[in-house]
Amino acid sequence: MEIIKTYIEDVYIIETKVFKDNRGWFTESYSAKKFRDNGLDIEFIQDNHSLSKEKGVLRGLHFQLEPKAQTKLVRCIRGSIYDVAVDLREGSPTYKKWFGVELSAENKKQFLIPRGFAHGFLTLSDNTEVQYKIDEYYAPEYDRSIRFDDPEINVDWGINNPILSEKDQKASLLKNSDCNFKY
């Protein structure tokens, strides 16, 4: 397992070793020991799984306020996505900066997004399935969204009219949010 730093502190791309033979392939997608050995002591408590039927579905930008913020370990198990993390930690040197990576069933990359970040992804293919681990349970009263096209953040999604949920259509701009993350 290789843990690759990005230019944003605490945001990582995870690449696992894939063993292939005539039967197919095998990979160890997660190891608490290997995470701990690399200074990532995270206790994941739940796995989530989503299906997006069409290319162009955008889910995000989502986060939960403190004290119910979530770390996420995201992977795409069918199709492909463009996955984005946005630093919402006021005082951080990368505050309001974002990092994106393509995750796919083919490349088997994973994306580690820590607490204090908004998360969103755009499907790049039909019938895309995403699984992710989280370290805090869903708490609706702490659930928040920021507009995918917030000009303060300016994520380059490569799409103008994504397919959005009603929740994401009504999301606020960051400047109107009650986001409470501190660096």
Core attributes:
183 residues, 13 strands, 6-stranded antiparallel beta sheet
Describe the protein.
The chain is mainly β and 183 residues long. The protein has a single domain (2-176), classed as Jelly Rolls. Helix content is 5%, strand content 40%. It contains two helices and 13 strands. It has helices at residues 32-37, 166-169, and strands at 2-5, 12-15, 18-21, 24-27, 46-52, 58-64, 72-78, 80-87, 98-104, 110-113, 117-123, 128-134, 143-145. It has a six-stranded antiparallel sheet, with no helix packed on it. The protein has a five-stranded antiparallel sheet with strand order 9-8-11-6-13, with no helix packed on it. Strands 3-4 form a two-stranded antiparallel ribbon. A hairpin with a 6-residue loop joins strand 1 (2-5) and strand 2. It is globular and about 55 Å long.
List strands and helices in order, with pairings:
Layout: E1 2-5, E2 12-15, E3 18-21, E4 24-27, H1 32-37, E5 46-52, E6 58-64, E7 72-78, E8 80-87, E9 98-104, E10 110-113, E11 117-123, E12 128-134, E13 143-145, H2 166-169
Antiparallel strand pairs: 1-2, 2-10, 3-4, 5-12, 6-11, 6-13, 7-10, 7-12, 8-9, 8-11
Count of separate structural domains: 1
CATH architecture: Sandwich
Spatial order of the strands forming the largest sheet? 1-2-10-7-12-5
Q: Per the principal axes of the C-alpha atoms, what is the gross shape?
A: globular
Alpha carbon gap, first and last residue: 28 Å
Secondary-structure element order, N to C: EEEEHEEEEEEEEEH
Report strand %.
Answer: 35-45%
Q: Share of helix among residues?
A: under 10%
Number of helices: 2
The class by helix and strand makeup works out as mainly beta
Q: Could you report the average pLDDT, rounded to the nearest whole number?
A: 97
CATH fold title: Jelly Rolls
Number of strands: 13
Write the CATH homologous superfamily.
Jelly Rolls
